[in-house]
Amino acid sequence: MFMNRRVLMAIVIAVLCGIAASACTSTDQASSGITGAMTATGGRAGTPDSPATGQILIWATTDSTPATTVGLAPRPLQAIATSGEFTVELEPGFYVVRGTELGGLVCGEVTVEVAPREMTKVDFLCQHR
Fold this sequence. Notes:
Helices cover 19% and strands 45% of the residues. By secondary structure, the chain is of the alpha+beta class. It folds into two domains: 1-30; 33-128, Carboxypeptidase-like, regulatory domain (Immunoglobulin-like, Sandwich). Strands 1, 2, 5, 8 and 9 form a five-stranded mixed beta sheet that branches. A four-stranded antiparallel beta sheet has the order 4-3-6-7, with no helix packed on it. The termini are far apart.
């Protein structure tokens, strides 16, 4: 019942190759999406900038043409609450992203392209008068 050295060596190599392959694939899968911040600025003189509380709304679009939410689906693909910074994982493609502060102030709306395995930076500045 002694195992042949060649068979034993083949089993060891197969196990090591399997471990190496799984290690490579687990670290290779970077996510894609958007990341950024929504900041409130302005207001009374001397008021410092601060993280803005609100929502990030995301609609899928077909190309990079500057778009607005007019004509897009009535409901966004995603709506996430934020208290300043945000990160959303998305499939690669084009998206219209809107930052809206609580109370309805639209802080900005941009069209972005999300590339595979990259996080696209999107920042909004909510200007208070």
